[in-house]
Specification:
It is a single chain. The protein has helices spanning 26-32, 46-51, 53-59, 80-92, 107-119, 133-139, 177-194, 198-205, 207-211, 218-237, 252-265, 271-289, 294-307, 315-327, 355-366; strands at 15-18, 40-45, 67-71, 100-105, 125-130, 144-149, 152-159, 164-167, 331-332, 335-343, 346-353. The protein is an alpha/beta fold and 367 residues long. The longest helix is centred in the middle third of the chain and has 20 residues, at 218-237. 47% of the residues are buried. Bound molecules: nicotinamide-adenine-dinucleotide. Nicotinamide-adenine-dinucleotide binds next to helix 2, helix 5, helix 6, strand 7 and helix 7.
């Protein structure tokens, strides 16, 4: 029997530029790519096609895309059907290995475009130009790309880093306020897992104010840049999510289940609202399991319930929610795996919780 082992060096060179004017760097990034891309394609959704594409084309006047594709806006586009349609569009455009895909949109477009780029011809290059707050603070960074299988979130995917990520707050100007609120949840998550003085500042400002910050508010830009730096630091240490990157799952065990459940119910929750509800459950579990002080638990649950839109969740829904969690990648031997907090800035990875404990947390947060 032949046994071989090889060490595959993981070269992760994803350039990130964030802040006002970042978009102006696109031409330089494309120019510096070796080999030079033969063709350039842009992936948008219906909203970013209308609101963001003109901004991109205006600020990069030398850019001459060979094709611009538009998918329907919303989570339903993270599907194998949309992937199939895009594969045929790439084939029709005779896209080759050296070509370049620009993903212009929120987390749905960067997840979908990343999936396409990872798999078409076994991998082509792509640049993420995130236009939503979730995209800018989180989804576009780190090379995790996935699509959903039916209502189950992110069940098929790849690690395939973008060659660059250009994060320009100019796009936030047209982002609807409910999506700004949704993005704030991922920023709050980043602050809770990383610690520092920012939690005190956002707590002092209050959840309602944080979730309604105007797109040009310098405080929003400060929070966004903090999230970008923290995410980049985590993925640089642990690209394949073997250890510290799991911190980013804080709030996502219950959050993903709620998102899938709400998709099935026909009243989809925003990703960030679902994550905020998931963080409320995770802090409740943290007080039970990892010693998070009850006063911190109460302050955090209040923050989530005040700032985000969380639908009524009843005990009759629990079986379905727990069933979805069992399908997710976060259960082991029938126990639910969570990222919890010992205190703010001190996450605890792979905390196993029983069904009773999870039900208890759901009751504490939602009844
Ligand atoms: N890969 C990752 O690491 C990662 C991390 C977090 C979230 N995600 C994924 O991201 C997705 C959620 O991201 P999202 O909230 O950005 O969703 P989204 O892409 O659906 O964007 C939200 C809405 O805002 C619109 N939009 C985006 N930018 C706009 C702009 N500038 N102006 C006007 N409208 C705009 C979109 O068309 C959409 O209707 C989920 O699928 C989630 O699983 C992935």
């Amino acid at each position: 029997m032949l046994r071989l082992s090889s060490r595959i060096a993981e070269v992760l060179r994803s350039h990130i530029v964030a802040g006002p004017g970042a978009l102006g760097q696109l031409g330089r990034f494309i120019h510096e790519l070796r080999p030079q891309p033969g063709k350039i394609f842009i992936l948008t959704d219906a909203n970013t096609h209308e609101k963001c594409l003109p901004v991109l084309l205006q600020s990069c006047q030398d850019l001459q895309p060979d094709a611009i594709w538009k998918v329907a806006a919303g989570e339903a586009s993270k599907s194998i059907d949309t992937v199939n349609t895009l594969y045929y569009q790439l084939l029709q455009a005779r896209a080759g290995r050296n070509d370049l895909l620009l993903n212009l949109g929120g987390g749905v477009v960067s997840d979908l475009g990343g999936f396409i780029a990872a798999s078409y011809l076994r991998g082509i290059r792509y640049i993420n130009i995130p236009t939503s707050l979730i995209g800018q603070a989180d989804a576009a960074i780190g090379g995790k790309a996935a699509i959903d299988i039916g209502p189950l979130k992110n069940q098929a995917g790849f690690f395939h880093p973008p060659v660059a990520v250009l994060i320009d707050p100019i796009f936030l100007e047209t982002l609807p306020s409910d999506h700004r609120r949704s993005g704030m949840a991922e920023i709050v998550k980043m602050i809770l897992i990383s610690g520092g003085a920012l939690w005190n500042r956002i707590q002092k400002a209050g959840a309602t104010k944080c979730c309604t910050l105007k797109p040009d508010d310098p405080f929003l830009h400060k929070l966004l840049l903090h999230a970008v730096k923290e995410k980049n630091a985590l993925i640089t240490r642990d690209y394949r999510e073997r250890n510290v990157r799991k911190r980013l799952n804080f709030g996502h065990t219950v959050g993903h289940a709620l998102e899938s459940w709400s998709l099935k119910s026909g009243a989809p929750m925003h990703h960030g609202d679902a994550v905020a509800a998931g963080m409320a459950c995770a802090v409740s579990l943290s007080a039970m399991k990892t010693g998070l002080p009850p006063a911190t638990r109460d302050a955090l649950i209040r923050f989530m319930l005040e700032g985000f839109i969380i639908p009524s969740i009843q005990p009759r829904d629990y079986d379905e929610l727990l069933g979805i969690m069992e399908h997710d990648k976060k259960t082991v031997n029938g126990r639910y795996r969570f990222t919890l907090l010992k205190e703010i800035g001190k996450p605890v990875l792979n905390a196993e919780c029983s069904r009773e404990e999870v039900v208890n947390a759901l009751n504490t947060c939602f009844l």
